[in-house]
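User: Before I run my own analysis I want an independent prediction to cross-check against. Here's the chain; please return only the structure tokens and, at the end, one sentence I can use as a sanity check.
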Amino acid sequence: MHHLLFIICTCFLFTACKEDAKKGADCYDNYNNTQLINYQGTERAFVLYLPDGYDGSRKVPLLFNFHGFGGSTNDHLNTSDMRQLADRDTFILVYPQGSCLEGFSHWNAALPSATNKSTVDDLGFIDFLINDLSSNYEVDSARIYACGYSNGAFFSYALACYLGHKIAAIGSVSGTMLDSSLQCSPSHPTAMINLHGTNDGVVPYNGSSEYIAIPDVVDYWCQQNNTDLSASLSSENYLGTTIEKYLYANGDSAVSVEHYKIIGGGHDWFDIEFSGASTNEILWDFLSKYDLYGRRP
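Assistant: Structure tokens:
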């Protein structure tokens, strides 16, 4: 039922509805553990997790994880819980809440335009939130990362495009890019990792009249980063599911692009392992290799 709800909501997301988002917290006021911050006269919510090892004595990385359309911070945290990784490697973890559009939460994954679903400035909100968190906690400004699921993955690509001077690397699960994002010019070589199922019924792997095909997204980032055009391929089977890993290495500033092709996978935050690593670990272990200047020593 949980995945069915996401599918229904995500299909609604990409209709032609362009009405202004409602103000207030009516999409998520029944959820707990959220913090509120005022941005442009609207209360925006997020869940903040400080790792056990954080004591304010040194700067640490910051990771944003964005829910899909119709989702909530707490539901997405339960599905993609990275708190154990935050404790292991000492990074600040934030699950922001999308604003409301006719009772459904959403992210605007483009600059203000007819492409967006509302007039809410989500790019500005995350910029504002980064500044606020950085003023209250010891955040390593060169190691701020974004990942997300579905609409949240769309938004992660947009952050790399339009807030790239603050975002070191990005991850996408069951998401793609908007056409407008293909016109962007990231401000620095930006490592990208995505995981996508070949049977995704919401964001088709091979694209459609509405959605960019995942191989085209991978090719875009390979070209932007000037990586090898031929990938090194490895494959594993996890509980009957074949997973193919494509690694495009040797990009500018030593960044790389990785794509995990989940054969038969649907529109999910995948419950898989590859080389003993879960989806959460695959994402974080990749992202954490990079900062704003490229691959870390």
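Sanity check: The first strand starts at residue 35 and ends at 39.
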